[in-house]
Amino acid sequence: MRNNRTPVITITGVEDNPDRFVAAFRSEFLDATYAVVFSQTITGAVALHRFVQMISDQYGKQVELRIANDLFQKPNKAVEDILKSIMKPETILT
């Protein structure tokens, strides 16, 4: 199934756990939310990348990320590199 809208993935922190994050995508059509919980590690970066790739492949287009400006207090190189590789100019830092 293809949709004309750009898929939006929102990345937020996990309450009371500053080292864990949630990347979530909401499908209005399916009335469902898909999510992955990841940490700022190499394996967390791989999990995030695979999640973004899964959504991108399903919709046939690059996703838009929405990330809070101060979300990653202590940036991890692996997560930072993955975010840079999947961000496009329309990425919104909230």
How would you portray this structure in words?
By secondary structure, the chain is an alpha/beta fold. It has one domain (8-93): 2-Layer Sandwich (Nucleotidyltransferase, domain 5). The chain has helices spanning 42-59, 77-86, and strands spanning 8-14, 17-27, 32-39, 64-67, 92-93. Strands 3-2-1-4-5 form a five-stranded mixed beta sheet, with helices on one face. The longest helix has 18 residues, at 42-59. The protein is globular and about 35 Å long. The mean pLDDT is 82.
Secondary structure elements and pairings:
Layout: E1 8-14, E2 17-27, E3 32-39, H1 42-59, E4 64-67, H2 77-86, E5 92-93
Parallel strand pairs: 1-4, 4-5
Antiparallel strand pairs: 1-2, 2-3
Helix pairs in contact: 1-2
Key descriptive features of the protein:
94 residues; Nucleotidyltransferase, domain 5; 2 helices; 5 strands; globular
**Content of β-strand:** 25-35%
Mean pLDDT across all amino acids? 82
CATH level-3 fold name:
Nucleotidyltransferase, domain 5
Question: Pairing-aware structural class of the strands and helices?
Answer: alpha/beta
Task: Give the number of helices.
Answer: 2
| Count of separate structural domains | 1
